[in-house]
Amino acid sequence: MHLSTTRCLVALLLSASAASAQNVHVVDVAGGPGSDFTSIFNAVSAAQSGDVLLVREGDYFEPVKILGKSLVIAVEPGADVSVDTVVVQNLAADDMVSVRGLRVRGGGAGQIPALQVKNCLGAVWIEDVPVEGAPQAFVAGGVYCVDSANVVFQRCTFEAPFQLAQPTFVSERSTAFLLETTVIGEDGQTSFFPTSSTTSPGRNAIVVDDGELYLYASYAEGGRGGGSLNTGAMFAGRKGGNGIALIGTDPIVRVFDSVLVGGAGGFGTGGAPNGPSGLEFSIIAPLGAVDEEPGIATSMTVDSPTRETGQIEASFFGQPGDRVWLKYSLEPSDARFSGRWNGPNFLRQGVQLSFLGTVPANGVLTISAPAGELGLGVEAVTLYAQGVFLGSRFTFSSPATLTLLDSAF
Predict the structure, then answer these.
(1) In the chain, what are the domains?
(2) What pLDDT digit, counting tens, does each position of 70-79 carry?
(3) At a CB cut-off of 8 Å and minimum separation 6, what does 332 contact?
């Protein structure tokens, strides 16, 4: 990282100390030294708006519910932290929630989506969060986003839900972004005694019910259609699920450097045909539209959280010869699509912009810089960052959060 970039970053951190400093609560299910809570649920309940939860290794057999307040949840680097469900709900326009590194098992009683964002005017950033399809009764996976204005899913994997009669990812009346994210639809039911009620089509990977969805360097695949296990029965295979289905009135899906795949049809038996494959996308909504934008995605990663005595490590992935800038801010803004610049713009207010260098022949520009001191009494500061690449044209990369912690944690 250039010296000028390091100086700008340190200056930003120091200027943020008074207005944007965050209190840190350490969560450790084992109750180890320095921990404040053994339960994420209790830590979230006790935290004040704007605080940071630093979560240590462990299986937390509980839901995480963030209701009406800003919060940052950061997993200790290298730790495996699992929870049952995550719900973010009722954020005001100036609230911000960042969840990074949790593994969501989809546990808990009842057939409800494992990850839910509901009625949020403020920004919600979900990073490096896999949502599993739990292979046991009375639990489910799946992601549900409804009536929310600015929801970012970055580097996530959403497996097919289990025993949940819905697509893997559902967005209703929301503006949502899937960046470097994989979504897999559930396979249809297969039976030894096949009937229309004991077998089912493959489920859609994604359903968009009005609002806007942006896919950036992502992958969506519908589930395989169901069929018969009885080779002696004459039964046609069921249809595969779609990669994306647009329903409602006027949903918009923008696809950039992403892959949509329809699920394979179920196998027919006894001479009956296989089921038809699903579609890449299906538009049922009368004013629905899919806009496939040309271009090659760029991306960035940054190790987080980082202590103030450590190094900020980041990588920028692009085409050899691309020039790269880093822009960063203390808060994100409402993300907007841009026809002039490839990719969505996540940072538009109070932004610092610094030149980093040129992407080498291997396609990865790696940078390292000292984090710098946070200042007396400052426990943590969270930055929101995005790369800007210039090759044949400007491209905004996928974004990332960086939480800097006092060395005491």
Answers:
(1) 34-293 (2.160.20), 299-405 (2.20.130.20)
(2) 999 999 999 9
(3) 96, 123, 125, 150, 152, 346, 347, 384, 399
